[in-house]
Amino acid sequence: MARLRSDFWVSAYLRRCSVEGMDAALRKRGAAEAGAIFVKVDRLDGTASLYGPAPQLFLDGSTDRLFAPILQGVTPLDVEERMRRELRFDPDLWLVEVDDRAGRHLLDLAPEG
């Protein structure tokens, strides 16, 4: 089974956030078919987190998109700087921003290990 296209996944994710009462917005549109997806979570208290694609070793043939924390409990400016570097490396990435005081992200996280 093929993996869900990035544009469909992002659209569904934005809708899910809305249903859960979370403010989420598409900040950068990437490659429709397979662009890497990053999610910035701003807790609105001066801290933010960044989630990105999990390393390939966690995918083991699964079609699910798994995420891993990249930055946790940093300033929103730290996340912006990291995303500037990511964009230089991969201009086809997607960036979604979620504003949630509780820090909810609704992402499937890869197991730690």
Structure keywords:
2 helices, 28% strand, hypothetical protein tt1805, DUF1491 family protein, alpha+beta, DUF1491
| CATH fold-level name | hypothetical protein tt1805
How many separate domains make up the residues? 1
Mean pLDDT: 92
Proportion in β-strands: 25-35%
- What is the overall shape? globular
Rounded to the nearest angstrom, the radius of gyration is 13 Å
Q: Tell me the helix content.
A: 10-25%
Unreliable spans are none
- CATH homology group: Protein of unknown function (DUF1491)
* Distance between the first and last residues' Cα: 26 Å
Protein name: DUF1491 family protein
Pfam families: DUF1491
Organism: Microvirga arsenatis
Kindly summarize this structure in a few lines.
The chain is α+β, with helices and mostly antiparallel strands and 113 residues long. It has helices spanning 6-19, 76-89, and strands at 23-28, 37-42, 48-53, 67-74, 94-99. It has a single domain, classed as hypothetical protein tt1805 (3-Layer(aba) Sandwich).
Spell out the blueprint of helices and strands.
Layout: H1 6-19, E1 23-28, E2 37-42, E3 48-53, E4 67-74, H2 76-89, E5 94-99
Parallel strand pairs: 2-5
Antiparallel strand pairs: 1-5, 2-3, 3-4
